[in-house]
Amino acid sequence: MNGTIQAPTIEYGLLAPMLVVFGAAIIGVLVEAFAPRYLRSSIHKPLTLLSLAGAFVLTIWQARSGIPTKPAAMGAVAVDGPALFIWGTILVLAFVSVLLINDEGHFVASASAVPGSAEEERALSEGATHTEVYPLALFAVGGMLLFPAANDLLAMFVALEVMSLPLYLLCGLARRRRLLSQEAAVKYFLLGAFSSAFFLYGTALLYGYAGSVDLAKIGASLGAVGGQDTLLYIGAAMLGVGLLFKIGAAPFQAWKPDVYQGSPTPITALMASGTLVAAFGALLRVFWVALGGLEWSWTPIMWGVAILTMVTGAILAITQTDIKRMLAYSSIAHGGFLLIGVVAIGNQQQNASALSALLFYLVAYGFTTVGAFAIVTTVRDAGGEAWHLSRWAGLGKRRPLVATVFAFFLLAFAGIPLTSGFFGKYAVFQAAVDAGATPLVVVGVVSSAVAAFFYVRVIVLMFFSDPAADGPSVVIPGGTWAVGALATLATVVLGVFPQPVLDLAHTAAQSLFVR
Amino acid sequence: MEPAKIIEHSGGVIGVSWLLIALPLLGAAVLLLGGRRTDRFGHLLGVATAVASFVVGVLVFVQLLGFDPAERRLAVPLYDFIPGLTKMGLLIDPLSISFVLLITGVGSLIHIYSIGYMAHDPNRRRFFAYLNLFVAAMLLLVLADNYVGLYVGWEGVGLASYLLIGFWQHKPAAATAAKKAFIVNRVGDFGLAIGIFTIFTAFNSVSFAGVMASEAHPSQGTLTAIGLLLLLGACGKSAQLPLQSWLLDAMEGPTPVSALIHAATMVTAGVYLVTRSGAMFFPEGSTAAIAVTIVGVATLLAGAIIGTAKDDIKKALAGSTMSQIGYMMLAAGIGPAGYAFAIAHLITHGFFKADMFLGAGSVMHAMNDEVNMRKYGGLRKVMPITFATFLVGYLAIIGFPLLSGYFTKDGIIESVMEHSATLGWLAVLGAGITGFYMSRLVFMTFFGQKRWEADAHPHESPAVMTWPLIILSVGSIFLGAFLILGNRFMTFLAPAVGRPEELPSFHPFSVAGLATLALVAAGAAFAWVKYGKAEVPVVAPRGSFLTTFARRDLYGDALNEALFMRPGQWLTRLAVFFDNRGIDGLVNGLAAGIGGTSGRLRRVQTGFVRSYALSIFVGAAILVGAWFVVGNL
Predict the structure, then answer these.
(1) Which of A361, B146, B537, B576 could connect to B207 by a Cys-Cys bridge, CB 3.0–4.6 Å?
(2) Do B626 and A304 touch (CB under 8 A)?
(3) DSSP output for B4-52
């Protein structure tokens, strides 16, 4: 070092998509600070959508102009094939979620007001809204972009926090059921902080082992350092805890139902799609680049976690009576299915095909879940969205189209052929069988069968029960309509004609993760 | 003489003979898919397609006559039906064209008649759609040049029959009758299906030409098995013993349906099947052929006996249909000597039985849909045209000299007599019973005192209904002489089914012929004494055990119930029991187990963030510990 400080080199071009999102987020903050209240919303909406669309175009452009083979930003960020694919996925899903956020009535008028107080009444009557939602969402999306691309543990930790902190806030902004929303935010924050501590401690232990936080260097030092295995195992396990928490894998899934339920539904959609994709990207990178040489030791553990996650998600979903909690448990179960893909990647020989299967599954699931939560926002009672399943009885008779689309999403979750969910599951299970993880696939199939029960139960409820006289009304604002249509389209196209996206995922996976 | 070779031909009208099937099928499709929009002209379209199909049939017939008799077996290839198994094509030969003319000709007349008969039915359009569907399926059945195509048509007519028997499905009796017909036919169809599978296994082909030309020589046992399986199919469709029970109930359908499907055409499909397969699977003297004759003679007697006791005019006619088809089966069973008589009787029967069914329909139409003959009587004066045409049909069926039935039925009896004297005398006995029950029917309906219900005001039917009756009765008079005299029909049919080396000659005063006439006359006279001269009680008397026996359809239904229905119900109950207790118990137990687990595990989700944190902590500890253990293995 010689006491001189070298100026860091940053490949701005490569990081452009992320920078666009962060830049727009900062502009959003400035808008909040300086623009008059009545203008804010009409500035935020186009700004947010345009920045996400622009970032998506840049991602495409980058993928077409050649995938770099070396990490960027002095080794801190790796813009490689999988990262670009995940970026594209996150940006599209975020775009769709923002369409959902755009529609009125999801967010509180004044978050600081005590629920039910005169102050809240006043804010409501003034028509106040929290337009901060937009920059917060953009910061979260930026974090989601950085998280799976981060090539050292510190950058990854920063990304984790950039992603999570805005989400903690957003969780507490639901317009209805204020207490539940605030409770969700606090729970998410506390547990998130708890898991971040694990992540950070794991980082520290791995640094102690490898002398670096760079993923590639940690990977290279495996086996080269003698006598420090305890440090390695405990560090790797703790890092794993932090990542698995974000995925919502069992036994770290407890936050998911409470948070998904309490959050404003558009934010739930963003978390259930974007966060999950980002977290899987990061998990894959850590376990593949840094801990790939340790595969023999983490595969059995991943098996256990995957089985526990699938079974917990599927079984607990059965007795749920709340549509959002049911979808949360469904999300847990799907996390388990995706973990099967992670196990399959661990096998050296066929990691590219497994990786592409996993990437496809993420796209398929992301779209369907955003669509499902979009439908949840439309079914409303006097007190807000109608979450209790009994309120959904007979929806098929009142609003056949809405119920049919929702039924279609549920079938996609169940993995019925001609939906995207079928090919997602099929690809992942196939990869796992090729990797010799057949028992895991058997558990996956059985869990799918159990899960199909509660999906179909909702369909039966919607179509074969008589609607209540005072049943919920269905309100479909323009943005939600577009989201439903897009998600349906994606679920159909990926289910009937999956090859282009499979090919794209395959191309992305072919280059694997850069070191 | 053996049947002629099948040659491919696709010129002239024969090249477009698929129109025969396509036209009524199009009619059915338009009427069914068009829905209420076609209500206004539905019946006219239905008639138009049937008549158009008849016109095509006549043109095809004319073109066929232009061929040398030895070349009158033309295959019209259409398309690859089941790739690698069979092509779909039509077989135009004297046998199939005879059926085509009968189906489309009588079919058209019945279509026209139905315009009047169904005039007040709100679903008349649907009725015509089903009739068209039936005609298309029946034509496919007789025109297909392979067994699979025949089977498709076979199932198609079964479907149309089901739909039409149950056309008035608001009547529970009609709905039940439709189901019964369908289920009993299923037994026969199953036999036919297995028969076709066996044919394919044995010959590696399912086309008539392929089977005939096949080099494979399956064992005698296989051939007999195929023959018996085809016979089972024929028994189902043609209401022969032991699958006869559905036909009487099928009379719940509208009367034109009974005339077209359950008298003139569909129920003769079994005769067609046996005749068509005769050279291959029912050679003279084979076990299968003997079985056919036994089934035929048993049914002709059983049907006649049932006919003697029925007071329901349509059921009496249905018993008669069973009996007459029994004659045809009997003739078909004795080989080339009988085929021509079987088919000729089939055609004349198609005319006079359709005539009588439509006449019965005309009577019912006049009598507020009353079917009980004990409440008719003396109708000849108020319905002169119906009476006259019915009388012609009646005289034809009992074999009054020089009318159609005289020639064809006598031909059957004569040829059977040469084959086996026992069977021949049984057929003569059947003719005598026919003379009795048909006379009974006519006397009870048209003669004697009026026994009408108070609100009955009988009147002659409209022209749209009487003209078909007149045309059919003309056929009933002359067709038999035209076909039989000079062996015209046997010579015509020979290229398709073969014929005996020595053509039979017609003896008007043979022993059997005279005996038949005498017995028929005795039967008619007995009926006159019992039902013409004497007063017919309005409430049926109890009668002897023989009467009861006949009234109960010879205990056919009781037998079916005891042998099949009750054991079947026990079996299903047993299966349901096992399903409920065993399989469902397992499944439900598993589901309950999972649900219970879910309910218990759910309590772990306390909602307290401290317990969540604890679970994360414990989970992390386990993860770290596990990794530590695995890593140090």
Answers:
(1) B146
(2) yes
(3) PPPEE---HHHHTTTHHHHHHHHHHHHHHHHGGGGTTTHHHHHHHHHHH
**Pick from A198, A251, A316: CB nearest B598:** A316
Binary contact (A238, B624; C-beta < 8 A): yes
- Percent of chain B's residues with pLDDT above 70: 99
Q: Which residues in B lie closer than 8 A to residue A257 (C-beta atoms)?
A: 605
Q: Do residues B55 and B23 make contact, with C-beta atoms less than 8 angstroms apart?
A: no
If you write DSSP's letter for every residue of B225-284 in order, what string do you get? HHHHHHHHHHHHHTT-TTS-HHHHHGGGS-HHHHHIIIIISGGGHHHHHHHHTHHHH--T
Hey, where are the domains in chain B? 283-541, 579-631
How many whole angstroms separate alpha carbon A157 and alpha carbon A202? 11
- Measured distance CA(B185)–CA(B234) in Å, rounded: 10
How many angstroms away from the CA of A250 is the closest CA of chain B? 8
Closest residue by Cα to residue A188 from A173, A177, A176: A173
A18: tokens are 């992320």
Find which of A124-138, A194-208, B65-79, B558-572 is predicted with most confidence, using mean pLDDT: A194-208
Q: What's the pLDDT score for residue A1? A: 47
pLDDT 10s digits, B14-27: 888 888 899 999 99
Give chain B's length. 633
Min mean pLDDT across A165-174, B47-56, B78-87, B278-287 is at B78-87
Domain ranges of chain A: 12-510
**Which residues in B lie closer than 8 A to residue A258 (C-beta atoms)?**
605, 607, 612
pTM above 0.80, yes or no: no
Token reading at B43: 């019946």
Q: What digits encode the pLDDT tens for the residues B249-307?
A: 888 888 888 888 888 888 889 999 998 888 788 888 788 888 999 999 999 888 888 88
- For chain B, the first-to-last Cα distance in angstroms comes to 90
pLDDT of residue A244: 95
DSSP B554: G
Structure tokens at B97: 């064209």
Do the beta carbons of residue A91 and residue A290 sit within 8 Å? no
User: Rounded to the nearest 5°, which phi and psi values hold at A6?
Assistant: -80, 135
